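input
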Amino acid sequence: MIELGQGVFNKIEQSPKPIIAAINGFCLGGGLELAMSCHIRIVGDRARLGQPEINLGIIPGWGGHAALAPAGEQGKAIEVILTGDQITAQEAKALGLVNLVVPGDAVLRQAKGLAAKLAAKSAVATAAALAAINGGQGLPLQEGLAKERGQFVNLSSSEDTLEGVSAFLEKRPPQFKDK
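output
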C-alpha cells in the first residue's frame, strides 16, 4: 500500500501537465501528502493542514517527510510531523507549503482561473519546464542547469517556439498548436 501510494504521488509530481490542488477545509495525512505532490496548491483561508499520523502510532508514508521538509523550514516540518498538530492556511503559506491563500468561497474559482491560464500556454513548453524543474531538483547547480539547457535546446526547434516568438514580434497573442 505504501509503495502504491508513493508511486501514484510520484506520477503526479512527474506529470508533464501541471496539477493544481484546491484545498478548502481540512487537508490532513494522506490528503496533505497528495496535495504536496501537486505542482500548485491554492488554499482557503480557513483551511487546516497537518500530518497527524503520529497520533495513530504511525508516520506519514506517502512522502510527507520528503515533501514537507523542502517545502519550508525543516524545524517547522519536523514539529508538524512529530506533534501531529494542524497548521493554518497562513502558516502553510509562510512555510512555502501552499502557493496562494484565498477566501474559502474563492478557492475553486481561483483554481479554475489558474488552470485556464496554464491551458493557454504551449503544452510542450509547459512539459519541458516541469521536466527541467523535476529533473534538476536535488542536483548540484551545474547539473540542474544542464537539465534546463537540454529542455531549452529541445524546445528551440518546436513549432510552438516559432509561433511564440512570431506572436511576440507581431504584438499578438500566440496560437499554440502544442507541437
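quick obs: Strands lie at 20-23, 26-28, 40-44, 48-50, 86-88, 100-102.
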